[in-house]
Each structure stands twice: as C-alpha cells, then as structure tokens.
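Notebook, p. 212. Picked up where the previous page left off. The plan for this session was modest: take the two constructs that came back from the sequencing core last week, fold each one, and keep the raw output in the notebook itself so nobody has to go hunting through shared drives later. Recording the first one now, exactly as returned: residue sequence, then the structure token string.
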Amino acid sequence: MRVRGHFPASAAVEYRRGDMDESKDPRGGPRPPWTRIVFKPSGEALAGASGKGLDGATLDATARDIVDLRQNLGVDVAVVVGGGNFWRGRTGSLSGMDATQSDHIGMLGTVMNALALQDALERLGQDTRVQSAIEMPRIAEAYIRRRAVRHLEKGRVVIFAAGTGNPFFTTDTAAALRAAEIEADVVIKGTHSGVDGVYTADPRFDATATKYDEVGYLEVMTKNLKVMDATAIAFCRDNGIPIVVFDMSKPGSLRSIVQGGREGTLVHEV
C-alpha cells in the first residue's frame, strides 16, 4: 500500500513528501516530490481559445507535458478529463431536459476527450489506456481499480472517462474519487482562460481580486471559492488529498508543480 506524504503548512516551504528518501528515478535524476498524480484538465482547456470542440495543437501540447512526466521523471500519471467543451449536464437540465439524461450526454463528452487525448499520447510513443465508468468494451476498458493501478506500475498513462458513471456528480468529484482509489499523492487541476490559480474573486471581471499561494479546504468551502465543487473539496479534505490549481496553458508549469515548484495555488489542510 502506498502512503501519502506529509505536506507542510507554510507556502514558503516547497511541496515535498515527508517520507521520501533520496532515491533516484529510473532515469538517474532526483525523484520528484509527487510520484503518482491525478491530472484533471477541464474540457474547455483541451479546446484551445474557442472553448468548444477539440484543438489539435492544445491536445498535442498537453500530451507532451504528460509524456515528459511519465518518461523523463518517472511519475505515474492518471488523467480525469472533463467534457464541458462538448456538453455540460447542468446546461441541459436548466433548459428543461431531464437532468439524468443531460448528465449522461456530458459523460459521453468526456469519453470523446479521453479518446482524443489517448491518440495524442500514443502518437508520441506513450502507452495509454482509457478506462470508462460506463462500459463501452469496443472502445475502452471498464474501470477496474486494480487494473488501473497495474497499468500505472507498468509505465502506462491511464485516462479515466465518463466521470463516476453516475448523474449529479461532476468530473471534479470523479478526480477526487479516483485519486483516493489509486492512492495518488495529489490532484492537479488545469484551468483555462489564463486564470493561474485560486483568487478571492474572478480576476477576469474583478480587478481587485488577489491570488492565494495556498488556501485551506475549509476556507475554499466557506468562501465559495471557485476551485472544484463542494463535494470534491470535502472528499479531498476527508482523505488528505492536496489539490493544485494552475493555468495549464503556461509552458512547463505541470513539470514545475510535480518537481515541487510553486505554480498556481495549493489547497490543503492548514
């Protein structure tokens, strides 16, 4: 069983696993602080500037960042993809559609994103498996926790699609759930629109908004800060899973986070 490390309360200290020794990764370099992650890009972040559909250049850049972590740093990478670039369940339900039906459409959107990202990764030579919470045996494996962990141990990237497989739960909650199940060290959420972390208000509309370098789970929930939905935040708090929110369009930021750099905002117990 993997044991998650201790995370210091001070942002002045680089994020590092307290129980980590000085062993080297398979490439001979220093072992990164976080060695198994769940990466959560939003669907819109995969769509480029338009926020709709898929953007080939953005997919390729995201795939290169993931391959860098897996092949050069030896990090186990699992990905939970959103689907908002195709459909949002809440949008359909607010327009009068049955909420369950609308959420199922959104789950299919995440499967499309997962298959597109798998293709981008495999074109770079990275073995990748898609596991879907809704069984689609002709295009993806069914989600099986032990199989997912084994894929990671063999150096494959695993992409989790279709959220939790249940309506009324977001892909943020799916990311938190999968992180607990595979014993990941952290959930890393990639945002779009140039927002590089958690702010007191939306910096795109409020010039007085200030950025948090770190913030506690409770403050996120009580102040309704836009990080993840409340269910996902509470789940991460209860299971001791830190969250990093960052702008995934900034080159090199994902590598920097995994190596202990202070990119974005760290959400943890303070």
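Okay, moving on. Second construct, recorded in the same format:
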Amino acid sequence: MTSAGRVAVPHLVSERAARPVFRRRPTQAGLAALLSLLATGIAPARAAAAPPPGCERPPAVQESQPSLEAVLTDAERLLACSAPQAALAVLARLSPGPGEGRRRWLVMQWRAAQAGLNHALAVQALTLLAEGDLRRLEDVALPLVRPGASDTGRASGGKPSTRSALDLLAEHLESLGQRQQAARVLLLSSTPGALTAARWGRAAALAEAMPLQQRDQILEQALEQAAAAGAWGLVAALLDQQLAAGVSDPASSRALERRLRLGERIDDAYGEWLQRRQLSGPDHEARNRELELLLRSPRLPGGHAGPAQLPDSPLSSPVQP
C-alpha cells in the first residue's frame, strides 16, 4: 500500500514488452513479389471453382408448353452443371404420354433424382419405368455417368458404365429403410448365372423378418446358380453367409462340410482356416497346422505388406573421417 492509502497494482507487462515494435517498411519490390505470389495461388482456385461453360445461363425452357427435346436438353445441361434440383424442376414442366418419349423422360428423372439423392423419387421413376411389371427392370441398363463426364464410373472401353435397373431399385429401397421390399425386388431376378445368385444371396441377407428356413432355401437356390456358373468365389461367400445366418443345425453342418471341401478345391487356405479354427479335434488341429504353413506371409511376393525399406545409399550416408 502506498503512502496515500492506495493499493499498488503490480505490472503484468514489463516495460520492455510494452514498448511498440517498429518494423522495417516493405519495399515496392517486396510488395510486388507478394502480390504475384498471391495471384499465383488464387488463379487456379478461381478456375477450379468456376462453373463449367454454359452453366451461367438460365434454362432455355420458358414457354408454358415446352417440347420434350427442349426439356431433356436443359435437364442434361443442368445435370452437367451439378444442379440436379434445377433439372428436376425443369422436368416437372412436362409429363409425356405413354411411348418412347415418356421412357426417356423417366430415365432423365431417375438420373436427376439419383444425383440429388432423392431416393423416393428415384423409386417412383423406376417403378413407372417398369410399367406394372418390375421384372422388366432386369433387362434395363441405366447409365451411371453422364456423357462427356470424367473417367470415374466408366468401363474399360471408354463407354459409360451401366447397371441393371433392378439392382438400382433395390438399392434405393434399401436406402429408404425398406429392406423387405428390396429383398422382394432382388428375388425377381430370373437370368440364370452368377448375377442372379448374388442377387438372391443379397435378398436373403436383407429379408431379416423372413423365417430362417425360408432364407436357407433361398441361399440353397443361389448356391445352385453360382455352382452351375462355376463362380466358386461366390459359392464360398454364400456358404460363409449361410454359416453366419444361424440356420438350423443340419443345414449349418451341411454348409460347413461343403465350405471345407470347397476350400480345398479352390485352394482357399485362408477361408478354410477361418472355418476350421472354430472346430476342435485332432484331425482339425492337424489340418489347421498344415493350413497355417500354406498361408502367405504379408512380406512374401504377392503379399499385402509394403515394399521393404531400401538400405541407405552411399551417397546419402554421412562421410566418415
């Protein structure tokens, strides 16, 4: 306390730190170099953020009764500009009657709904495209990317990748939480082969409310399709799914026996080892030891480990005196 009766406040900042710091004023050359550096970094960012050519102008469809070609052209351009909601708004200005024009309009509506993650509208478009029979969608191939897009989603031949409308409808339904309905759609697949087997296997996994015996029957039919097509990798995956589904004991035992035999047949040492390690007994233990010797080390040729670290180059090593 001071002589005047006032409490002395301690200095929280030293006098030296409180002094103003004067820096050297930048030169004209330094400012020019800084501005050039900023421009070099900003120009590419502006170019990347700029909309593609043609995206600045509004849709050409303005008349009350636009033509189908004008609507589809504008919707295509808006999709290329990553504006699916605007494309849907343009498509809503027209509702074609039955025929090829309506089919093209529905495909464009599905593309816009898929791009905008509007799964409900996508389901509606695909359902209308089926014209009352969802089995027709199995033979309808829909493009996954727009013409002229980047290489992402393109097949090796350079053409846009396509997928069956039946698979796409099931995926949209699954996204909406309608797993049972998605399973029913996949079970409509009738083309013999591995594709139908994979769809039936997926349907069995989605139909959680279905009785286990019925799901096991679906998996058995899928196994027959996959085996007939020689898709042994798919057969192994379906057997693993059957074992994980917790079906009846006889079915589980039968699936396990087939899975172990298949592992030996297709040289799937890892898959066989995964199943055998859950079993006990001298025979299984002996086979497990054999399989462990067959399993490839990550560092052997073809393994998943990264390349070994190369020794230091003599040029990079420090020079010893």
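Notes on construct two before I forget. The chain is about 55% helix and 0% strand.
Flagging for discussion at group meeting.
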